[in-house]
């Protein structure tokens, strides 16, 4: 018995030491992101095309539905991933100012300068003006979706201006469906649909300068400019005839379900405003032929004196401190090329900002048209709430939710959000 | 067993002892290497799997054998004193590392600002006791305790007492049905009840259970989850649905332990059923009632999953634990999050004390 034990112990130790000495730690790039499921599978196609060109490097992608929480815990404990794909510039700036990130290599920076519109490079900069982020898949918000067959069948025309849009929705109020489907329920993140609406209205009523100052807290929430945006939103959401189910349904309806209202057997509504990703929420049989079923136009400018500005969003990839190994840099550079867009564009579900991308690769004309909207935009701004400090973003979500559901007056809600800047 | 044949007597002990200590040092060194290797985590997954399996089981065994052998070689009086610690130390170390240190660290964080850099004194506690979100949470947690805790216990006791009087086959099926929800996780329950409370505007297809039943009787659909004033109570119903089963099973076991002579004697003395229930059954199982109540009260104080899954704390349903999560992991305000966590801890402590004290009583009683 004694000898068996000793023999076992000796074997365990020697075998383990040998294994540890011999086991090759592969050249691996670890990426951590917020997107999962089908999107992660498609991203694997991007990884595959990189690995095919760079034998010897393995790239692995992992995700969490509670991305921000997990990333923050990992950063706190020093357990950095090599690369993270961060949806919120506010979070990127936080991490950069804490010294957890390293700026991109010069090769990557050169590509960002030449291959992207300047706005994307600007969004990738930290407070120290250094370039940290590479944008890959992006989206555009403030798109208004409609059911092509029903819309054209009813003889409606796509409005070119805000006045035309208002006239159109007014005439829709007396039809058999409501003008708008709106749903903002999104679990703990309830509120982002409303903040997206406010942001889009802000971009269409105020200069980009006001918008930028609003993000940094120099323009208060309780200011004439922001109050005006809420007033315009109230004109739509607060009008019981304008929204399917009325105001009381908005917070009780999931954002996933509200888009489907365009294509129910008897359409519940004519219009639905959402980001380009909303095509993913539609019914399966509609998704099979998006080009034939879905029509889209951009929310027109409200103040026509201002130049058209788009609201965009997207994940930016950043490298962590001590992790900028050559293979990691190589992958970051790859993400800045159009070649990294093509595998995803082919499958669908992603738009890309790269100038050198192959537009013919997009699976649907619809997605290609979204991409063209992004590429041709003279001016673009990021989702404001995502660019605000996390605490303000949270207060903004909660505030709009309270406002919509009668949990507070406009004044109290706006003051509460302003208070979140001060902490 | 471990008390190996290597422990007989004195002089030859020293070399063996040194050998064992050397082996222990080697093992700990290898453990450290294994730790580094696993932390790096980029090797072939199969090698990672085998190494962690071997050292998770074989390594622990080896450490245990080495340490007990060393202690065995010590003179008797030391051995008696040290041996229990060999067994208890790992568990104590884990409690210390995972429970005690984080508690003190959380307290320290609660005195710092949102990024845990500047000392701000009790400022976060001012938030924890005066902010609208926390006042709403206190009010709601009170509702959870009184209605959630109270109704679970009362219903559990009622069903236990009544089912005790029925046919055994009927009793078993009732108990099984009531107990079944206990097998579901809180988040799972939230998903199920989402379908019960689901709302769609009037005229649309109502897939929510309550609204479709209401529709049969011609009632307008109600958006239950955003209906301030009733939504917290509707969430409490979920907890009652889950916890009644727990209370029922424990009470049923306690009632079964009630000697039938007591009840018979009461009947002979002319006590009614109600009298014997209140004057004999309840006093007899009092200790059980207290420990079940405190256990459920603790879970209502800490309630998180149901609120998180159903409303995200919106629409006036916020509770303390979810407010802690929101501050810590959505607003990234570590100071406030930690302060709220400490407030919750302090609120739970007295209940835990009652709970543990009565466990002690119960143990002595048997």
Largest sheet of chain A: 7 strands, mixed
- Enumerate how many helices of chain A there are, as a single number: 21
Number of strands of chain A: 11
Distance between the termini of chain A: 66 Å
Q: β content of chain A, as a range?
A: 5-15%
Low-confidence stretches of chain A: none
Strand content of chain B: under 5%
Approximate shape of chain A: globular
Instruction: Tell me, rounded to a whole number, the average pLDDT of chain B.
Output: 88
Q: What's the number of helices of chain B?
A: 15
Question: Using only CA atoms, what is the Rg of chain A?
Answer: 24 Å
Sum up the structure in keywords.
heterodimer, A: 423 residues, alpha/beta, 7-stranded mixed beta sheet, 4-stranded mixed beta sheet, 21 helices, 15% strand, globular, B: 366 residues, mainly alpha, extended, disordered N terminus
Short account of what is shown:
The complex is a heterodimer of chains A (423) and B (366). Chain A is of the alpha/beta class. Helices cover 48% and strands 15% of the residues of chain A.
Tell me about this structure.
Chain A is of the alpha/beta class. Chain A has helices spanning 2-22, 38-53, 67-76, 89-97, 106-115, 118-123, 148-153, 162-173, 192-205, 208-216, 224-237, 247-250, 255-258, 284-287, 290-293, 326-335, 342-347, 365-376, 384-387, 390-405, 410-422; strands at 27-33, 57-63, 83-86, 101-102, 134-141, 143-147, 178-180, 269-274, 294-298, 309-320, 379-382. Chain B has 366 residues and is an all-alpha fold. Helix content of chain B is 75%, strand content 0%. Chain B contains 15 helices and no strands. In chain B, helix 6 (168-179) runs antiparallel to helix 9 (231-256). The longest helix of chain B is centred in the N-terminal third of the chain and has 34 residues, at 76-109. The two termini of chain B are 32 Å apart. Mean pLDDT of chain B is 88; it is low at 1-9. Chains A and B meet through helix 1, helix 3 and helix 20 of A and helix 1, helix 2 and helix 14 of B.
């Amino acid at each position: 018995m004694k000898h068996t034990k000793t023999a076992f112990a000796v074997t365990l130790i020697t075998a383990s030491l040998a294994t540890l000495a011999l086991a090759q730690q592969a050249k691996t790039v670890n990426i951590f992101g917020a997107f999962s499921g089908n999107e992660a599978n498609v991203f694997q196609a991007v990884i595959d095309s990189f690995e095919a060109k760079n034998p010897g490097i393995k790239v692995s992608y992992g995700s969490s539905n509670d991305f921000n929480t997990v990333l923050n815990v990992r950063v706190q404990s020093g357990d950095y991933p090599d690369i993270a794909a961060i949806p919120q510039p506010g979070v990127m700036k936080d991490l950069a100012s804490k010294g957890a990130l390293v700026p991109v290599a010069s090769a990557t920076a050169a590509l960002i300068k030449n291959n992207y519109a300047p706005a994307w490079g600007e969004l990738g900069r930290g407070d120290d003006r250094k370039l940290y982020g590479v944008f890959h898949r992006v989206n555009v918000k403030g798109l208004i979706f409609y059911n092509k067959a029903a819309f054209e069948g009813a003889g409606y025309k796509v409005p070119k201006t805000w006045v035309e849009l208002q006239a159109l929705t007014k005439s829709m109020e007396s039809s058999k469906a409501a003008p708008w489907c709106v749903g903002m329920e999104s679990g703990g993140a309830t509120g982002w649909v409303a903040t997206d609406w406010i942001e889009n209205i802000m971009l269409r009523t105020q200069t980009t300068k006001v918008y930028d100052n609003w993000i940094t807290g120099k323009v208060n929430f309780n200011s004439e400019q922001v109050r005006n945006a809420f007033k315009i939103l109230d004109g739509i959401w607060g009008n019981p005839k304008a929204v399917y189910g009325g105001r009381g349904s908005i917070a009780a309806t999931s954002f996933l379900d509200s888009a489907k209202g365009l294509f129910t057997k008897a359409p519940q509504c004519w219009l639905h405003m959402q980001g380009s990703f909303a095509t993913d929420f539609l019914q399966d049989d509609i998704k099979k032929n998006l080009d034939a079923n879905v029509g889209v136009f951009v929310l027109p400018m409200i103040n026509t004196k201002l130049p058209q500005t788009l609201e965009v969003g997207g994940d930016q990839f950043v490298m962590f401190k001590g992790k900028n190994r050559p293979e990691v840099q190589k992958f970051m550079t790859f993400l800045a090329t159009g070649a990294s867009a093509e595998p995803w564009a082919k499958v669908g579900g992603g738009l890309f900002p790269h100038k050198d991308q192959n537009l013919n690769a997009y699976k649907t004309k619809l997605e290609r048209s979204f991409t063209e909207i992004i590429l041709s935009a003279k001016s673009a701004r990021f989702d404001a709430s995502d660019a605000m400090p996390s605490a303000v973003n949270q207060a903004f979500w909660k505030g709009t939710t309270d406002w919509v559901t009668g949990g507070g007056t406009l004044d109290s809600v706006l003051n509460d959000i302003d208070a979140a800047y001060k902490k | 067993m471990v008390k190996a044949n290597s422990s007989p007597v004195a002089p030859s002990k020293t070399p063996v002892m040194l050998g064992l200590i050397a082996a222990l040092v080697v093992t700990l060194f290898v453990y450290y290497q294994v730790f580094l290797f696993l932390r790096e985590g980029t090797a072939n997954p199969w090698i990672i799997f085998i190494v962690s399996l071997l050292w998770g089981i074989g390594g622990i065994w080896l450490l245990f054998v080495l340490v007990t052998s060393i202690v065995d070689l010590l003179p008797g009086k030391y051995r008696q004193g040290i041996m229990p610690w060999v067994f208890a130390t790992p568990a104590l170390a884990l409690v210390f590392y995972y429970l005690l240190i984080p508690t003190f660290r959380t307290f320290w964080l609660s005195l710092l600002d949102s990024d845990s850099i500047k000392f701000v004194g009790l400022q976060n506690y001012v938030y924890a006791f005066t902010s609208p979100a926390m006042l709403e949470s206190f009010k709601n947690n009170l509702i959870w305790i009184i209605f959630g805790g109270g109704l679970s216990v009362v219903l559990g006791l009622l069903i236990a007492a009544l089912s005790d009087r029925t046919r055994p086959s009927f009793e078993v099926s009732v108990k099984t049905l009531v107990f079944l929800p206990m097998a579901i996780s809180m988040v799972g329950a939230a998903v199920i009840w989402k379908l019960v409370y689901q709302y769609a505007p009037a005229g649309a297809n109502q897939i929510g259970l309550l609204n479709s039943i209401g529709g049969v009787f011609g009632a307008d659909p109600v958006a239950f989850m955003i209906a301030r004033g009733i939504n917290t109570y509707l969430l409490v119903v979920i907890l009652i649905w889950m916890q009644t089963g727990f209370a029922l099973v424990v009470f049923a076991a306690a009632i079964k332990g009630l000697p039938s002579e007591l009840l018979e004697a009461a009947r002979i003395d002319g006590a009614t059923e109600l009298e014997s229930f209140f004057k004999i059954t309840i006093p007899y199982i009092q200790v059980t009632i207290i420990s079940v109540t405190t256990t459920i009260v603790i879970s209502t104080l800490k309630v998180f999953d149901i609120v998180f899954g159903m409303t995200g704390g919106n629409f006036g349903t916020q509770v303390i634990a979810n407010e802690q999560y929101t501050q810590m992991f959505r607003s990234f305000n570590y100071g406030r999050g930690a302060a709220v966590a400490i407030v919750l801890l302090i609120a739970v402590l007295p209940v835990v004390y009652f709970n543990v004290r009565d466990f002690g009583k119960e143990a002595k009683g048997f």
